């Protein structure tokens, strides 16, 4: 019987990423039961780890005796001093251009537009960035462990590719000459920040 892990997300892109990787380990990935009706905790941490830990502890209370994973991830752009960072999903909302990310299906598009505007005129050599992900695993309100993954890239001046989500269409991988949005999901997860964090967590998770 396959191990089952619950993930504290309803984001279809994240779920697809996790499920793709989990197949290799014969692990079933499902959202926390009733997640859509559970009020979200306040994510007021200043780091990805703080937010991931907060969410993992909180949501594990809704799945007794089960291992619950929560991630906090985002984009860090060197030219912007590491922004948007923990505010990656709310970058456009913070700029007053959209409602909350949960209520706006076009949030990814607006976030990309805001980022490209802020980088307007900055040359390619200075558009270095990284995706960062921290995963936390909790059971019955206690943290079991955390893991982290990063991937380096460059922010393009215009989107390219039709896959992925978030900032993937403008996150360019020089070694592959592709954006994250160009990659097949199985290839993407093997080298992405979320995939690296997930692999590290599974290698150390005692179940």
Automatic annotation (TrEMBL):
Instruction: Look at the named UniProt entry and state the broad enzyme category this protein falls under.
Output: hydrolase
- Where along the chain is the active site annotated? 72
- Residues annotated to bind Mg(2+): 42, 72
Q: Which UniProt keywords apply?
A: Hydrolase, Magnesium, Metal-binding, Nucleotide metabolism, Nucleotide-binding
Q: Catalysed reaction per UniProt?
A: XTP + H2O = XMP + diphosphate + H(+); ITP + H2O = IMP + diphosphate + H(+); dITP + H2O = dIMP + diphosphate + H(+)
Entry's cofactor comment: Binds 1 Mg(2+) ion per subunit.
| Cofactor(s) needed | Mg(2+)
Protein name per Swiss-Prot or TrEMBL: dITP/XTP pyrophosphatase
Pfam family name, one: Ham1p_like
> Record's superkingdom?
Bacteria
Oligomeric and partner information? Homodimer.
Q: What is its EC number?
A: 3.6.1.66
**Where does the chain bind substrate?**
9-14, 73, 165-168, 188, 193-194
As one GO molecular function, the record gives: hydrolase activity
